[in-house]
Hints:
It is a single chain. By secondary structure, this protein is an alpha/beta fold. The chain folds into 2 domains: 284 residues, 3-Layer(aba) Sandwich (Aminopeptidase); 131 residues, Alpha-Beta Plaits, CATH 3.30.70.360. A 6-stranded mixed sheet has the order 1-2-6-3-7-15. β4 and β5 form a beta hairpin. Bound molecules: zinc ion. Zinc ion binds next to loops.
Amino acid sequence: MRNRHSFPTRADRVLAEVEAARDEIVAFTAELIRVPTVNPPGDFYRDCAEVIGRQLAKTGLAVQYVEAEGRPEHTAAHPRVNVVGRGEGAAGRPRLHLNGHFDVVPPGDGWSVDPFGGVVRGGRIHGRGASDMKSGIAAAAFAVEAIRRAGVDLEGAVDVSGTVDEESGGFAGVAYLCEAGIISAPETGYAIIPEPFGPARICVGHRGVYWFDAIAHGHAAHGSMPHLGHSAIDDMGALLEGFRTRLGPELAARLSALPVVPGLSRRPSLNVNAVVGGQAGETTQSPCVSDRCTATFDRRFVPEETFEEVRSEIADLVAAVERRNPRRRFRIEDRMVVHPVQTPSGSPVTRALSAAVAKVCGKPAELVASPGTYDQKHFARIAGVEHCVAYGPGPLEEAHQPDESCAVDDIVASTRVLALAVLELAGPNEGA
Length: 432
Ligand SMILES: [Zn+2]
């Protein structure tokens, strides 16, 4: 877009700098992919933090490495090292924080390319983290760099961080930065997390998570006389059947107003992660009736359900299964609860990104929500930064898959969108 004197506008200059940096953006993404920051256990975090830190220093940000001192997972073998680049800005104006996690899940099997090669082929960059979310970190870093190269002085401060452990809860990563006050409202007013939702989608929240164990207590006996015991495994079978036939249809009948993608995830869900009971197959067998069986469950809930309801519905079902046989006894143990989060509607962050998507992609932005949780919860709940969304390149569907990849055009488009949004949220007034 040109102004009436045909001078390029500030936005035009910034977009031209993004385009000119295309090869550098791809090279930086590849450099990040080549550091195998596999979590668990949390390999090479310091190396990756330093790769990001060097890039942020070139942009003129004050780079700080933050180790998660005091967290049990921060060990000599696997130090939890985060990197934060702090920008300068006018006091009293909200800071904008761009944050990406640089840990990746293990590659697993089924790859046709080196998962840590950062190979570019057919217009796509390949590797573990290509989508989730090293291309997003590159997009955030180069959005801010392009603004610097265009010679635009931002009035508001912009921080860019690379953090650890999102895949395992983010406690030594974003949560740590929030607890340390490095990310804190009202000083930090806005946050964008470039998780892979694609160049035209903005993620405005996620569902809640409740992980719990159900433990069945039986009575051990000789396996040749099972009638003298009471099998905990049989009881667990009855409980699983109850969840499947009674709770399952109830959950499937609920539909959230939160625009969760894929569409079927707008309904709450319950998954059995694991069942452990009796003697494991690999060990020597002895004739025993199992007196204990544990199942681990993953219940995802929507904002329309309260956590108290979610929990009491499970307790009611367990009680009903127990009533059918007086010898049945279950115990429920909580593992983790994450409440759903939602960005306030009409948030300035959503508005700035929506306008940028419309300009860069030529179509309206789609507002979506995530079926799984990510670091937005820590921004919202610990730091009090409500105006937080996820926006970044990469197909969500390829996250954690073999042959994970991201289109180079998508990385560049998302960098353009992020740069325009940063200008809007932190830039001087038009004409200044
Ligand atoms: Zn991610």
